[in-house]
Amino acid sequence: MDKPLPATILTGFFGAGKTTLLRHILQAEHGEKIAVIENEFGEVPIDNSLLGDRATRITTLSNGCICCSSANELADALLDLLEGIDRGDLDFTRLVIECTGMADPGPVIQTFFSHPAISERFLLDGVITLVDAVHADGQLNEFALAQAQVGFADRILLTKTDIAGESGALVERLQHINARAPVYRVVNGEVDISLLFNVEGFILNDRLTVARPRFRPLIEPQNTIRSIVVNLAKPLELQTVSDVMERLLATYADNLLRYKGILAIDGDSRRLLFQGVQRLYNADWDRDWRDGEPRASVLVFIGVSLPEQEIRDAFAAFE
Ligand SMILES: Nc1nc2c(ncn2[C@@H]2O[C@H](COP(=O)(O)OP(=O)(O)OP(=O)(O)O)[C@@H](O)[C@H]2O)c(=O)[nH]1
């Protein structure tokens, strides 16, 4: 069986700079052959012509937005690419999907896990969310979807800081929504490609970065997306962790966009890595804890209206 093909999802609100970035990716020297799936929101596929001919194949999904009505359209496009490879008509090493500004990344991500052939032959590498430094504050205030796009990110690219300036407060706000994804400032798509590829956001690994905002807003907006970081100093019982997670998911799976953790389990010398997207989660043993390394657990939950106290209490009960 060939190695699965890595796939990168580019998301971000209208005008955030997704096409600009994609053009840069296609022109950069990275030795990858990239296939592109573009989603034009019921428009003429103008972006195709903007991208030039560097992509191995550009599939345009035009029938609305891949996130909702036409989730199958995305699955069909992915299967179509696989058939092209099997027939020998297509050859590519990586797939990039550009979502529309109004796409919810959740269903797009789930397409990679829900269909057997797709989940076997593609490997979702990472979700890259672009945020327009000029407009993001207003968009985040007004649209829960703009927050969800940030909440799902493995990497956040802050665009247009050439106009908006350093945007420190916005970066704090983004880290409050998603404490897990590093934020990089990118002007006109100029970014080091190595930051975007092999992110392994959906592979169990120990790359759990947690941003620590220096301050928090005085007034917490209600019903917004944010992250909760839980640190636990003492090793946990495996069964108890799974009971708590099952209980949380039974009630709050729809609130949880993404969660990830590195856990110290009582009686085991290895670290336990786990991560999930809404209802889907998995866990795997990692390397041994090193001598002198504190056997402490850290979990990050990103979601909408998270029951913070309940999550904290459930885990605090073990301390
Ligand atoms: N000044 C400045 N302009 C930028 C930057 N990045 C993108 N733009 C401009 O912003 C506009 C929108 O960029 P696109 O790349 O089309 O954005 P998009 O996210 O693909 O937009 P939609 O397809 O509408 O969702 C274009 O005019 C870009 O040239 C940046 O870092 N600085």
UniProtKB/TrEMBL annotation:
Keywords: Chaperone, Hydrolase, Nucleotide-binding. The keyword ATP-binding does not apply. GO terms for cellular component: cytoplasm. Residues 225-319 form the CobW C-terminal domain. It comes from the Bacteria. It catalyses: GTP + H2O = GDP + phosphate + H(+). GO terms for molecular function: hydrolase activity; nucleotide binding. Pfam families: cobW (PF02492), CobW_C (PF07683). PANTHER family: COBW DOMAIN-CONTAINING PROTEIN (PTHR13748:SF62), COBW-RELATED (PTHR13748). Zinc chaperone that directly transfers zinc cofactor to target proteins, thereby activating them. Zinc is transferred from the CXCC motif in the GTPase domain to the zinc binding site in target proteins in a process requiring GTP hydrolysis. NCBIfam families: PRK11537.1 (NF008578). Belongs to the SIMIBI class G3E GTPase family. ZNG1 subfamily. This is GTPase. The lineage of its organism: Bacteria, Pseudomonadati, Pseudomonadota, Gammaproteobacteria, Enterobacterales.
